[in-house]
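Re: beginner question about structure tokens

> Can someone show what the tokenized structure looks like for a real chain? I only ever see the sequence side.

Sure, here's an example I had lying around. Input first:
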Amino acid sequence: MPTQLEYGEVTALDHQTCRLRVRLDDRDGVQTYWLNIPQRNTQGTQRRRLMPEIGEQVAVLLDGDGVGGVCLGGIYSTAEPPPVVDEDTEFVRYSDGTVVAYDRVAGVMRLECVGNLELRCGAQISIETKGPVILKASSATLEIPQINVDGNLRIKGDVFASGTILDSGGNSNHHSH
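And the corresponding structure tokens:
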């Protein structure tokens, strides 16, 4: 039986098996059987992309009876246009408003997270830049047993410390002049 390309609207999702069902308006609203959603990697390196959402327009490749096959992915329309039309930008906006974008011409990657951002590493983290590092926050807490600074340290504002303050010559904050 020949396969055919059709378009429809997502009506049901099975997150456990990465499958969905689609209503085919060109076939009087008939609903497909559960269709697989192809993944980039499924063994060793594994990925699981976000599933299409209920009501999303998708392209499907169906078998001859028109109810089995695979979902090829979502499609844009005049009602739901692409969020970015720049051919040099890769862009993801999640339904909660979080944005990940990369502009390959400018060489700029942007992450705008509406919630918490967590970074965990089992070994060393290195950050290297040719320009300054700017950190803006209402406050910062460092839970680090030892910090080494190679270079000058300038502090604008008050310094509050508990414990002994020593310079390399052994002078402490408790000596007298």
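Each token stands for a local structural state, so reading them left to right follows the chain. The radius of gyration is 27 Å.
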